[in-house]
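# step 3/5: fold
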Amino acid sequence: MKAELRWLPAFIGLGLVWGSSFLFIDLALRSFSPTGIVFLRGLLGAASLGLILVIRRDHLPAWGFHWVHIGVVALLLNAIPGFLFAVGQQWVPSSLAGIVNATTPLMTVAVVALAFREQKPTANQLLGLGIGVAGIVLVTNVIDRFDGVTLLGVGVLLLATLSYGVAMPYAKRHVTNLPYSPYALAAAQVGVSAVITAPGALVSGILVHPLYASALWGILGLGVLGTGIAYVWNYRNIELAGSVIASSVTYITPVVAVVLGVLFLRETLSLSQLMGGGLVILSALLVQERWMPIRRK
């Protein structure tokens, strides 16, 4: 393979793993509670990343105030959305969850516009927000028919992507520039998320049904691959291809989620929901300014 394409295998692998995460959650819910899922994915992810740190002879951040910022990011980027996605997917199919997850860039821009005033949204980003809202309306199916369960589930998932949206600018301001390797920061972040979610899992219970093999494979895939190895692939893509190409994997994940949901879980989506998913992806292109139909003066 040509040197300039060395990033491609990990890029494809990351798209498949993150796109499969919604299938993994659906499988895990057959045996595990939402609190158990978010705790176990953090625990398994931290163990995987910790092993990678040992192999790389890297080390966790030094104890100090840096861990406060890492803890905030762990709460907003792992603990809260991890729990909410597990809750929401009790009511909506995994394919729809994958589509809703693509609203993360919209939430990030909205949060930046409201809370981080030094970063003003552009005209293209505002257009993207409008298109994204239209996409969400179609995804929730409120035009074709009022489905309270779907609306409730999508609402929970949107709260999860809002948490992502708060976490992204916070991490950029307080964590990404800390003097540690991205692997060390990822391991610390995921490890803290396991600590944060442990009490809830222990109080409410980790298992709610008998332990099925499919649920075990789901939680292993979610924790080891989706929360552990995926971080390594993501950082490798950034190093080899740059952040622009690396972040474009988010456009692959909803497609993978829909395909896997149809193939393995026999899920179906209405035409309006598929159209809404297309609008959500288009809005993500606009808010990340990958496509700029409105030219700056």
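# step 4/5: annotate
The chain has one domain: 3-287.
# step 5/5: archive (pending)
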